[in-house]
User: What shape does this take?
Amino acid sequence: MSTQDRTMAELVQKYNIAAPRYTSYPTVPFWDEKTFSIDAWMDQVYRTFKQSKDRGLSLYIHLPFCESLCTYCGCNTRITKNHQVELPYIAALLKEWEMYLAVFKGERPLVSEIHLGGGTPTFFQPENLKLLIEGSLNMSMLQQIALFHLKRTLLIPQPNTYRFFST
Assistant: This one.
């Protein structure tokens, strides 16, 4: 067996372990149903906000809708062709963001990253994605060089989805 094959076998053995999916926030090892409380959660949110104040927050916004299920998908999704779900879902997300902003005690968060995942954000109409992003950033400050990540399915290209990012 070559050195490269041995190294590869060692790496496979090392990393072939059960681990939480990246789509679980917080990750499963941190779930503690016995001692969970809303107050403790909000305290932790505020402490994390204060600790990341200078470098900014990374926002993950889960958009669970897809028109069809990809064969490789393991995400929490809802398969539907009903686009009437877009605006009520966005309204709920923006209401949740307002709740987090209240925890920040009037301080405007600096946002350094925005990740849209799901599902596929390209399920949403461009004007609705714009409403979501602008609503999320309305009471925030955007870091001068911010990262924006949009997960999308490659099966159904929707180039108009990106047109609002050009401004």
Summary: Confidence is low (pLDDT under 50) at residues 153-157, 161-167. The radius of gyration is 19 Å.
